Amino acid sequence: MLNFVICDDNENLLDRLEKMLETLFTKNNYDASVVYKSDNADDVLNYIDSNVADVLMLDINLKSSKSGLELAEEIRKKKKNPYIIFTTGHLEYAMVAYKYKTFDYLPKPIVYERLEDTINRLFEDVNELSKNYIKIDNKNTIVDEAEVQYIKRDGMKLVFHTSSRDYDTYSSFNKFQEKLPDTYIRCHKSYIANLNQIKDVEPVSGTITFADGQTCDIGPKYKKEFMEVMKNYGSFK
Question: 127-135, long-range: CB within 8 Å, 24+ apart, which pairs?
């Protein structure tokens, strides 16, 4: 899921933009949500320090302790990957805004069709980043591959487990295994483990413990290959 954060000093516009975005997400089956909105730049900085923010929509002319440009500069010092979309009624700031690795620039008043075009292009861009995201179904549900701890087969479904939530899809291991990075290893007939999320392995009992404390078994059929991979995996000692 993509988490959107909005910052604008006009509370009415904050509410309107949130509603427009949620309408777009529903219309296009995008796995996204507005998780935070504020009229204060410092509050936004405090929020992203301890929360996931994938897309930030920032008003340039904030009547706050910082302008939107200054806020973007602070964000880029902390986070290199979030998408930044600027909004403003002053066109002269457009070129300056792109200095901060800006995805797009929306002139005010924000028009629904123009916003939809930007959000559609953003999701197209995200879906092309196969090294960073896994698209798990045809409804544009995406998950950061680094956050997945394991993939579990549960009947006809696959469950992508992360520390924050589970993502379900009706599919098979075979469909996804070829698309997954090398850090994803089959360890059981019902599990694929992300090596980067493994906290401990107990060879005798054949138990894997993941970063959030969840566990799974190592299947006899996969044990030899899995333990060999673990032995040679540099970041796990």
Answer: 130/179, 131/181, 134/160, 134/176, 134/179, 134/180
pLDDT value, residue 97: 61
Show the beta-strand stretches assigned E in the chain. 2-7, 32-38, 55-59, 83-88, 104-107, 133-135, 142-144, 148-154, 157-162, 166-170, 184-188, 191-194, 198-202, 207-210, 215-217
CATH 3.40.50.2300 range(s) for the chain read: 2-128
CATH of domain 145-232: 2.40.50.1020
pTM greater than 0.85 (yes/no): no
Condensed to tens digits (0 to 9), the pLDDT of residues 136-165 reads: 877 778 888 888 999 999 999 999 999 888
Q: CATH 2.40.50.1020 in the chain, residues?
A: 145-232
Q: Where are the beta strands (DSSP E) in 65-219?
A: 83-88, 104-107, 133-135, 142-144, 148-154, 157-162, 166-170, 184-188, 191-194, 198-202, 207-210, 215-217
The SS3 call for residue 212 is: coil
CATH annotation of 2-128 = 3.40.50.2300
